[in-house]
Design a protein that fits this description.
The protein has 315 residues and is of the alpha/beta class. It has helices spanning 47-50, 64-69, 96-108, 122-127, 142-145, 190-203, 217-225, 239-245, 272-287, 290-297; strands at 4-6, 13-15, 37-38, 71-76, 79-80, 84-85, 111-116, 133-139, 148-156, 158-163, 181-185, 210-214, 231-235, 250-254, 261-268, 304-310.
Length: 315
């Protein structure tokens, strides 16, 4: 783990090192963002008219440009319950990520304007400053830290989801899925895990594991229940959600070769003042109990990260 600077009473840690700006994601374009913004309540966002609340507890930490704008533009892909999702028949975004972001923004005197963005375009949008921040359950990785800064606020374990009865006899081991097709959302962290599986299978003289990419979680889940793929990776805290959504057609098993990972909201690497303001805001919602209350509301206390901080991943 790299050295970190202590930044608060809850030991929020900031990665030491210089700011790296202007890096881009290979092969990803900055298009395709949903032009419609929405508030978490489902009504069109009127955040820009709300203005900056100079009386908020941490208002003095907000950069001047955002004080003038009065609104924080935040990107997410709203397709994953209970983190960030748009319920059927609604247009707004809900979930514990939404509640956490809005609780922090309120401490800073800012209103959130949500932007619905394909997952694989979030990082490039952050680098180009199309958005002020993003929160979408993104795994903190050293390679990604070259492109954006992470404020890690939760951690998560990973399981396999397979069809009921496990017809392909997938096991939890790194070579336990040789020759199968694993689905995930384009731009996710699954490629790294599938590469590990494929290498182990090839070394054992067995067919390699294959990754099949989908534009969103709904398409991925449908492919699994219909048998077009054989397994998916899934956060351990949301197993009950996918089982409910798929009519209890799936079962889970641990992924033995993957440690728990940090998940974070992201900021442009040049926006250190905004990032550090959110470090303090996250500390504040820990201290006043809002963080714990939100996790309890969504039944995801398993993700609780007791010592959050910036760029915590060391690999």
């Amino acid at each position: 783990m790299p050295s970190h600077l202590r930044t608060s009473s809850r030991s929020l840690r900031v990665l030491a090192g210089g700011v790296i700006a202007g890096l881009t994601l290979l092969g990803i374009t900055a298009c395709g963002v949903d032009s419609g913004s929405s508030s978490s309540s489902g009504a069109p966002s009127n955040a820009a008219k709300a203005g900056f609340d100079a009386k908020a507890p941490l208002a003095n930490l907000v950069p001047d440009d955002l004080k003038k704008k009065g609104v924080l533009t935040v990107a997410t892909q709203p397709d994953f319950e209970p983190a960030n999702f748009t319920p059927a028949g609604e247009t707004g975004i809900k979930g514990y990520n939404v509640d956490l972001m809005e609780a922090m923004a309120k401490k800073l005197g800012l209103t959130v304007q949500w932007e619905k963005v394909p997952f694989d375009q979030i990082l490039i949008g952050m680098q180009s400053k199309k958005f002020d921040a993003a929160i979408a359950g993104m795994t903190d990785r050293k390679q990604r830290q070259e492109q954006v800064d992470f404020l890690d606020y939760q951690w998560a374990g990973t399981v396999f989801m397979v069809q009921k009865g496990n017809p392909k006899h997938v096991t939890s081991a790194v070579d336990g899925g040789c020759g199968i097709k694993i689905g995930d959302v384009k731009g996710s962290d699954a490629n790294r895990l599938v590469d590990q599986m494929a290498a182990a299978c090839t070394a054992a003289g067995k067919p390699a594991t294959e990754l099949v990419s989908f534009p969103n979680s709904s398409d991925k889940n449908l492919a699994l229940t219909s048998g077009r793929i054989d397994a998916i990776f899934w956060p351990d805290m949301a197993v009950s959600v996918i089982q409910r959504e798929t009519g209890d057609k799936l079962e889970s098993m641990p992924v033995d070769f993957e440690e728990k990972v940090y998940l974070g909201m992201t900021f442009n690497k040049a926006d250190t003042a905004l990032r550090d303001a959110f470090v303090k805001a996250l500390d504040a919602i820990h201290e006043d109990g809002a963080y714990d209350s939100i996790l309890k509301k969504w039944d995801v206390s398993v993700i609780d990260l007791k010592a959050p901080g910036v760029n915590l991943a060391d690999k």
